């Protein structure tokens, strides 16, 4: 866990970057909230089942042209999609 001084400095820098003026009581509350959110965020990276999973952003985004007037167009389009290599 980061030192209290480093956390206070980081929170003050973020408030200044956002042009938020806060008194000492508000800064103390921001520090408390920052620490709890930081701890919760770090927990996300400790889930063993998800640690090596591929991100959901990996998908085939190419459009498949489906001639809807043909009888088995959807089946053909599905087969065409499945036959493409993973990108």
Order of helices and strands: HHHH
List the uncertain runs. Answer: none
> What is the number of helical segments per DSSP (H or I, 4+ residues)?
4
Fraction in helix: 55-70%
Tell me about the biggest sheet?
A: none
Q: Tally of extended strands?
A: 0
Average of per-residue pLDDT values: 78
Beta-strand content bin: under 5%
- SSE-based structural type: mainly alpha
Distance between the termini: 39 Å
Integer-rounded radius of gyration? 25 Å
Question: Can you describe this structure?
Answer:
The chain is mainly alpha-helical. Helix content is 57%, strand content 0%. The radius of gyration is 25 Å and the shape is elongated. The two termini are 39 Å apart.
Helix and strand arrangement:
Blueprint: H1 4-17, H2 24-44, H3 48-51, H4 73-83
Helix pairs in contact: 1-2
Summarize the structure.
With about 90 residues, the protein is mainly alpha-helical. It is built from 4 helices and no strands.
Key descriptive features of the protein:
87 residues; mainly alpha; 4 helices; 57% helix; 0% strand; elongated
């Amino acid at each position: 866990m980061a030192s209290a001084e480093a956390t206070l400095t980081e929170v003050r820098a973020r408030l200044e970057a956002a042009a938020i003026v806060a008194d000492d009581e508000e800064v103390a509350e921001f520090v408390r909230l920052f620490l709890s959110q930081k701890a919760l965020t770090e927990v996300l990276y400790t889930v063993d089942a998800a640690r090596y999973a591929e991100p959901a952003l990996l998908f085939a985004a190419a459009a498949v042209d489906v001639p809807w007037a043909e009888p088995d167009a959807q089946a053909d389009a599905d087969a065409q999609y499945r036959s493409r290599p993973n990108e």
